[in-house]
Specification:
Elements lengths: L4 E4 L3 H10 L5 E4 L3 H10 L15 E4 L2 H5 L4 E4 L6 H8 L8 E4 L12 H8 L2 H4 L2 E5 L4 H5 L4 E6 L3 H11 L4 E6 L2 H23 L4 H21 L10 H12 L4 H10 L4 H8 L4 H16 L4 H10 L5 H9 L8 H4 L5
Parallel strand pairs: 1-2, 1-4, 2-3, 4-5, 5-6, 7-8
Antiparallel strand pairs: 6-7
Helix pairs in contact: 4-5, 9-10, 9-11, 9-12, 9-14, 9-15, 12-13, 14-15, 15-16
Amino acid sequence: MPIPVAVVGAGSFGTCLALLCGMENEVRLWARDPAIADAINRDHRNPRYLQDATLPESVQATTSLQHTLSGSELVIFAVPSHVLREVASQALPHLDPNAVVVSAVKGLEYETGATMHGVLSDVLPETFHERIVCLSGPSFAHEIAQKKPTVVTLACRDEVYAISVQSTLSCPWFRCYSNTDVMGVELGGGLKNVIAIAVGIGDGMNQGHNSRAAMMTRGLAEMTRLGVRLGAEATTFQGLSGMGDLILTCTGDLSRNRRVGLALGRGQPLDEILEEVGEVVEGIETARAACRLAERLGVELPIATAVNRVLDGSWTPGEAGEHLMRRQLRSEQDYQKTAGSP
């Protein structure tokens, strides 16, 4: 049965989710830029993101959060992580009190170290908390818009709400699984961007396939170690939001985080890279936030630390690689024995 859906954010992922939901539902899509909203309503295309994708006529764009959210039973946030708190706060007065809220945002908040679920839990009243669902997994927006098979996971502490979103979003080319490990799913989706930058740096330096495989494997160990320390289940990182998203983001040419790493490894300055990319690269802020959080918790993240130091100019890519290879030798199983072990 069709339901009114609000998608907050008209970037690549918000646009593809509006397309997905608009096949069977009335969708209102919030855009900051009036020119983007006008073009979507006129041409049924987003002029900046996913320009080749035709949106259903059931998708209406607007710059008014009140109009976007009024009466919407399903509200999907798809904005950059660093503005989620601000946008959710602005949205709060207009949310239907019974709405199910979905975060399609991947990252950590720098100031607090909070996941996006944590940010929404801070902003929204407690009555919403059991209805916050987090979407994550290997999912390039361009491929979803092209109707290529995509599989993701939906995490919620009360699985009933994950299942309700699952039934709304799933279609012949977009399959959703449900999960109750919110922390694990969110950390997997955020931290894999940091590892993708690291893998890109190595590939940009022509370090070879051995190096790439090692970086991805040890990166997964780092993600798991921090996750378990924060109460996540280790097995979650073997799933779609962990290993699945890690493989995609580290190897797929559509990955903005990988592209940043490649350019850094080839010696290009970061500000120049970001100007060329032209979109938010979540792994940059997530690297800063993850290192700050890990230091507070006493958890060692050598790859994330190396990435962060390359990004802030403290180390060259070559120096970062040398530091990683010269670290104290130890057992591969150390991280499994205790969540805080180096």
